[in-house]
Amino acid sequence: QVQLVESGGGLVQPGGSLRLSCAASGTISSRHTMAWYRQAPGKQREFLASITSVGIPNYLDSVKGRFTISRDNDKYTVNLQMNNLKPEDTAFYYCNLRTWLSNGGAVDTWGQGTQVTVSS
Q1: How far apart are CA 3 and CA 6, in angstroms?
Q2: Contact, 68 vs 91, CB < 8 A?
Q3: Least buried of 1, 4, 97, 108, by fewest C-beta within 10 Å?
Q4: Angle ∠(70,38,99) on CA atoms, nearest 5
Q5: Are 58 and 96 in contact (CB under 8 A)?
């Protein structure tokens, strides 16, 4: 069983920065990817960035250059540094751990989410 706990959300002014963290615990396969998603009111959950177990990142085009994903493998922690935040970044942010199975499938685990509000 894998558990994810996010932290670091809050209220920030436009142009400001926030750093989200997600700590994974439990039995974690070496074949996994960790990622951040967000969901704004009335919208679908949106992929933002992911990072593989060996540190290869991938980003949604619209956040490239503003958001940076990183991980600490010793602690199974993934971080999302968000700079130059905009009001449209306001959303609930979720951590995801996708475990890749030997049959080609995958199992997703989600954190409880953390609110990010960008407003003056």
Answers
A1: 10
A2: no
A3: 1
A4: 60
A5: no
**Letter for the amino acid at 91?**
A
- Joined tokens for residue 86: 């905009």
**Which of 98, 118, 94 is CA-nearest to residue 5?**
94
The separation between the first and the last C-alpha atoms of the chain, rounded to the nearest angstrom, is: 40
pLDDT in tens, 35-79: 999 999 999 999 999 999 889 999 999 999 999 999 987 778 999
Picking from 66, 46, 14, 61, the residue whose alpha carbon sits closest to that of residue 113 is 46
Amino acid at 17: S
Average pLDDT over residues 14-24: 97
Burial label for 95, CB within 10 Å (0-12, 13-18, 19+), is buried
